[in-house]
Write a structure and sequence with these properties.
This protein is an alpha/beta fold and 274 residues long. Helices cover 32% and strands 18% of the residues. Helix 3 packs parallel to helix 4.
């Protein structure tokens, strides 16, 4: 269900850019997400979204941006996609992301878009202009190179092959694109065949970098949902998962569970492909 709401503010900020994504201002135009990925941390109780199956649209978001952007003394990178996908299907109707990009261009702010959608291609005109004036990054979440597996894990998102095609489309038009290899799901995606396949496909489709987190996190609300989905979609994996990690918040695979060979010991790292 789609519900319209009024937000009190739209930009949150930090004193320095985030070390992972280079983001200094965070913007979420929607709450909840239509992609319904089985592992999504935004489903956690701490975010106080009553029903994550609903999408809440901040219909006054652009008016708030018009007030907040001129007051920012630092032209730091604005990130969108941390709590929901800015290009989920609802964006086709409301076009809040496109409106926000127009305002970023007007006020001279760089942007980092995090997405699982091919709809981002629609805004290549604005992204190209922002890239010329400051910086525009588009990072696509890709945790498997297999469309069938991707559809199980991210049922409402674009197919992995469609994301790769969108990445190539943007790269050919001068947009700096990369991959968010996160989370890597234990017993499902944490094997070298999968990781190698993602790296090869990313490079072939114009990615300049990979932001990788070799593991996943779980909090109350998210964990219960994830375990139910494991039981439904991957028989036997829930039991393996609980034996290996119990109720730990951070789950880092030390070695591949489906192939021999050690997986990376660091939780996260940035890799350059060019």
């Amino acid at each position: 269900m789609i519900k319209e709401i009024q937000a009190k503010s739209i930009l949150s900020h930090s004193k320095a850019p985030d070390p992972w994504f280079g983001i200094q201002y965070t913007m979420n135009l929607y709450r909840g997400c239509q992609h319904q990925c089985i592992y999504c941390d935004s489903r956690s109780d701490c975010y106080q979204i009553e029903n994550f199956n609903d999408t809440l649209v901040k219909v006054n978001a652009l008016d708030l941006l018009k007030k907040e952007l001129p007051s920012k003394r630092i032209k730091g990178t604005i990130g969108t996609g941390s709590m929901n996908d800015p290009y989920a299907p609802v964006e086709k109707q409301y076009q809040l992301t496109r409106g926000a990009l127009n305002l970023f261009l007007q006020y001279g702010f760089p942007v980092h878009v995090l997405t699982k959608s091919k709809l981002v291609m629609r805004d290549v005109d604005l992204l190209s202009q922002i890239a010329q004036d400051s910086q525009a990054l588009v990072s696509f979440t890709i945790t498997t190179y297999d469309d069938a597996l991707g559809k199980k894990l991210e049922p409402g998102a674009a197919l992995v092959s469609e994301r790769l095609a969108a990445m190539q489309f943007l790269a050919k038009r001068g947009i700096n694109v990369g991959v968010l290899l996160m989370p890597v799901l234990p017993f499902i995606e944490d094997n070298w065949e999968n990781i190698r396949g993602i790296v090869e496909q990313a490079h072939a489709h114009g990615a300049g970098y990979i932001l990788a987190a070799f593991g996943m996190t779980q909090r109350k609300g998210q964990q219960e949902h994830y375990l139910r989905q494991l039981e439904r979609l991957f028989p036997g994996v829930k039991e393996k998962h609980l034996r290996a990690f119990g109720n730990r918040y951070v789950h880092i695979p030390v070695k591949s569970h489906t192939h021999s060979g050690n997986m990376p010991h660091t939780f996260g790292k940035k890799y350059w492909l060019k």
